[in-house]
Design goal:
- This protein is α/β, with parallel strands linked by helices and 341 residues long.
- The chain has two domains: 189 residues, 3-Layer(aba) Sandwich (Isopropylmalate Dehydrogenase), CATH 3.40.718; 133 residues, Isopropylmalate Dehydrogenase (3-Layer(aba) Sandwich).
- The strands form two sheets. The chain has a ten-stranded mixed β-sheet, sandwiched between helices. It has a two-stranded antiparallel ribbon with strand order 6-7.
- α1 packs parallel to α11.
- The structure holds 1,4-dihydronicotinamide adenine dinucleotide (NAI).
- The site of 1,4-dihydronicotinamide adenine dinucleotide has 20 residues, from loops.
């Protein structure tokens, strides 16, 4: 089997704990990976480096693919978020987050199968904030035609490749007429000109959220600008059982960084009880991405084997505490490894 060089950023909080578990599961499943370990976040600061060291960025540029644990950005200390910087500097413009029910996991709804496509490089995440005068501060929402078109194009292309039926755009163009207005105009254009056969729908985000929590089965692909995508991702995680279950990929023209939707969970960090599944599912997305690029069917089989193992483990009641089970991180990984036949 081919060996792949992959950058690994363990991250902060629960990051190192879940990363160890995921590495063990990938190795047991037979994935041949040489991990190139780099730091970001608090771990990098503690090492006397920048929150996002240049050598970490360079490694991702060189090896093209990274698996990343969550990173903590210190609040109110003048640091720009590690995640925002990483996505902007590498132009990882498409955040893709599949949200599905899993066997044996009790959730508010059944039959949820939604893919969130979030614009990852601009909007209110542009980080342009200033104090106009004492007591008055401002944050700038940036939308460019280039970024709005490329994310819409990405979503429609993805829908076609994956045989999905419908794209729903959540927006607030009734209020943010210029920024969200541009976002929906670009999506409308791409739908009309290039992908008229994919069903297309626009919803004002407040009404869209209400419909999501009433009946998520009416949605297929959600296309959102940056901040809405962030918020709606967690909302959707809640529909299927929580943040421990939602993986993600940040994809650009050249590089791809795979990471769970959840953060560094400081409330449970160091206790060894975090659910490694969302990071593991992100790693499965990564293996599929690599196998598609390299035409490597053996690697695809490894991804499938891991997926079957976690589905079986969950169906047989092997769950971490966030899902109502009693296993800690390592015990869950062990149960999963036993089912890698
Ligand atoms: P969070 O996602 O870390 O935690 C929210 C809640 O979900 C907590 O109660 C936590 O214990 C639980 N949770 C999250 N992941 C879990 C897992 N795998 N297993 C079991 N329970 C889990 O969100 P929060 O608390 O808002 O953010 C904490 C830190 O993470 C912040 O510094 C934030 O900036 C950072 N963050 C980093 C992200 C990234 O690196 N991609 C994404 C989101 C937040």
């Amino acid at each position: 089997m081919k060996t792949y060089d992959i950058v690994l950023i363990a991250g902060d909080g629960i990051g190192p704990e879940i990363t160890v578990a995921v590495k063990a599961i990938l190795a047991a499943a037979g994935a041949q990976i040489r991990w190139i370990e780099r730091k970001a976040g608090i771990a990098a600061l503690a090492d006397g480096q920048d929150v996002l060291p240049e050598e970490t960025l360079e490694a991702i540029r060189q090896y093209k693919v990274a698996l990343k644990g969550p990173c903590t950005t210190p609040v109110g200390k003048g640091f720009t978020s590690v995640n925002v910087q990483l996505r902007q500097k590498l132009q990882l413009y498409a955040a893709v987050r599949p949200v599905r029910n899993l066997p044996g996991v009790q959730a508010r709804f059944e039959n949820v199968d939604i893919v969130i496509v979030r614009e990852n490089t601009e909007g209110l995440y542009s980080g342009v904030e200033n104090e106009v005068t004492p007591g008055v501060v401002m944050s700038m929402k940036v939308a460019t035609e280039l970024a709005c078109r490329r994310i819409a194009l990405w979503a429609f292309r993805y829908a076609t490749q994956r045989r999905r039926r419908k794209i729903s755009v959540f927006h607030k163009a009734n209020i943010m007429k210029m920024t969200d207005g541009l976002f929906i105009r670009c999506a409308q254009d791409i739908h009309r000109v290039d992908y008229p056969n994919i069903e297309y729908q626009e919803l004002i985000i407040d009404a869209g959220c209400m419909k999501l929590v009433q009946d998520p089965s009416q949605f297929d692909i959600l296309l959102l600008e940056n901040l809405y995508g962030d918020v709606v991702s967690d909302l959707c995680a809640g529909l299927v059982g929580g943040l421990g279950l939602v993986p993600g990929a940040n994809i650009g023209e050249h590089e791809a960084v795979f990471e769970a939707v959840h953060g560094s969970a400081p409330d449970i960090a160091g206790k060894g009880i975090a659910n490694p599944l969302a990071l593991l599912m992100s790693a499965v997305m990564m293996l599929n991405h690599l196998s598609d690029q390299a035409g490597d069917d053996e690697l695809k089989a490894v991804a499938e084997k891991i997926k079957n193992a976690y589905n079986r483990a969950l169906a047989e009641g092997q769950k971490t505490r966030d899902l109502g089970g009693s296993l800690n991180t390592d015990q869950f990984a062990e149960q999963l490894i036993k089912r890698l036949a």
